[in-house]
Amino acid sequence: MNNQIEEIELAKKAMLQAYDPYTHFKVGAVLVTKSGKKYTGCNIANHGIQSICAERVAFAKAISEGEKSFERIVIVGGETIDTLEECLPCGYCRQFMSEFVAQDFKIVTIEKEYTLQELLPYKFNL
Question: Is 55 marked active-site?
């Protein structure tokens, strides 16, 4: 439990780096590897359709550093740190994560913990 409290605080810190001048909904994420290493990410918006969610930023950082084995991701979001609300990964992020994790991969929010299987019961497979 102490790890999750620490990780929520790290996610809040990452959230402060978010760039979202359009909806003003900031998201921070902390991806934890099976070895315990942590990678943060924040959402980065733009006018086009190419915005990047915090979850994918954290995964991209980890994968680009050679990480391949993941334990959980902690996600926080809201207009400010004082107005956090339940924040789940979008469908694109869920499918993206499914490429790199097992179905029992944990997705932790400020309210609840989920498995990827619960949030993406029918992932796209080739």
Answer: yes
Span between the terminal Cα atoms of the chain, in Å: 37
Q: Are 87 and 114 in contact (CB under 8 A)?
A: no
Average pLDDT over residues 12-18: 97
For residue range 86-118, what is the model confidence (pLDDT) as tens digits? 999 999 999 999 999 999 999 999 999 999 999
CA-based diameter of the chain, in Å? 42
DSSP 72-113: EEEEEEESSGGGEE-----HHHHHHHHTTS-TT-EEE-SS-E
Among 9, 55, 99, 113, which one carries the catalytic annotation? 55
Could you tell me the two tokens for 11?
Answer: 């996610």
Q: Which long-range contacts (CB under 8 A, 24 or more apart) does 59-66 make?
A: 59/31, 59/96, 59/97, 59/100, 61/31, 62/31, 62/33, 62/37, 63/100, 65/39
Return the DSSP state at 60: H
